[in-house]
């Protein structure tokens, strides 16, 4: 029986969880909580030692929902596959909680995660539910007592994070799968599935891999869009929306082995930019991958294998930097992640940049970039140089194809062909002494500047008062002296500002 897996650990956390949870709002089956009812409040103990604090279990005991520690010290809500401790779903709020502080999960028609200091971190919006349950499929759902429609008011299956599981429908209107490091996304188009890099907070999303459904007809405008679903038999199927008509099958290595019923499968947008399927067998020690979208054995085929401004040399998959400067080494050929393009002013001027040129370079995903054709090398370079949304240009002298890169430069691939040349812009870092100031120096400078401003203002005020007094004095004199023949004095005095000094 599956529940046997990891029982001591589960039993221990159940005791802990029950201590923290208002017991009236729970339905406990056997030793596991399998329902959260309205009025529930569960509390995360500050700096809990276990990385996962379950609040709710699936009836099969394989999955649990609760507080998850992310990284060193952040807090999120997650549905975890207990045998592997892998989070299949995460709430991923814009702002994560802090593991070292208390946090509260409440259920009162909606699920809400609150942090003592920052307030509401995450909630299920516009939903009304009577109970929260975690299904055997790992789908976390809010359910109404009086609803026969079978469509829950809210389900985690409609809000994937980086992973899909068996029977989870993935559609064009689903949020994309976003890798844990938030740099890659898996999306569905009308008749195709695609992988994208995410730049500028998701505003620029160049595609680096796609697969079109074989039997779907994009030219047929009336044909419904496709949706995707991971199948326990070992494939990812693409189906026409609104039905079960399959238009494509991406079969996994284990497709013919008939592992049905013995394995749990997931498909994950991994942090290296590849989309992979994995399976877990009872008693296993690790996930086994049986599918990857980018199938080559060479990691140079992944879009950021050597980091920004890196050059991947196939074969040994060595990394170099596009700029051969000895002071930098891959994968840190470039400082920091680009958060904006090179445009400035009204969007046509460019910020300052340096240029790196390199021969024998190409792009791994050039099939996804639409080249400008019949160009000379100079024309190709000029097209990029003058355009502030362009970061680089890769030119093939043999074909005349010019690939403009309108997103920050990532890893290029080495190709032993002198006719393949690249032109790359590197943002000039603000290199003035000002930016090198230590915080202490900067603070001192600020204080001194302020003192100076106050002194100047005070000086001006005293000067003004002095001038005013003198002017009044002289004016008094003047009245007395306003006699013909004395105009010269008056004129010289009126035009002179000497009294300020
Ligand atoms: C969930 O799994 C448990 C244990 O495997 C089983 O007893 C139960 O019937 C399952 N529930 C559903 C709805 O399939
Ligand atoms: C997935 O889509 C199919 C076909 O549209 C539907 O029958 C099924 O209920 C959906 N599954 C979920 C979990 O919504
Ligand atoms: C367009 O789609 C409809 C409905 O799916 C189908 O009957 C028809 O044959 C399709 N036409 C073409 C040209 O694919
Ligand atoms: C696959 O295995 C299941 C039992 O695990 C069995 O019932 C089924 O007939 C098998 N199917 C094939 C095609 O071998
Ligand atoms: C960079 O260094 C490599 C190996 O040291 C060399 O083969 C290559 O020609 C150099 N490229 C440039 C542009 O200097
Ligand atoms: C390519 O450009 C040259 C000159 O710029 C022109 O004469 C030629 O017709 C062009 N070829 C194609 C296929 O467009
Ligand atoms: C600059 O490049 C972008 C993207 O490649 C393109 O959409 C735009 O039209 C170009 N602007 C000019 C002025 O050529």
Automatic annotation (TrEMBL):
EC number: 2.7.11.1
Cytoplasm found in the keyword field: no
Sequence ranges assigned to domain Apple in this UniProt record: 343-428
Membrane-spanning ranges: 441-464
Protein name as it appears in the record: non-specific serine/threonine protein kinase
Gene Ontology terms for molecular function: protein serine/threonine kinase activity
GO biological process, alphabetically ordered: recognition of pollen; response to other organism
Chief subcellular location: membrane
Keyword terms, alphabetized: Disulfide bond, Membrane, Receptor, Signal, Transmembrane, Transmembrane helix
Pfam families: B_lectin (PF01453), PAN_1 (PF00024), S_locus_glycop (PF00954)
Membrane topology: Single-pass type I membrane protein
Catalyzed reactions per annotation: L-threonyl-[protein] + ATP = O-phospho-L-threonyl-[protein] + ADP + H(+); L-seryl-[protein] + ATP = O-phospho-L-seryl-[protein] + ADP + H(+)
One GO term describing the cellular component: membrane
Organism this protein belongs to: Digitaria exilis
Entry-linked Gene3D superfamilies: Bulb-type lectin domain (2.90.10.10)
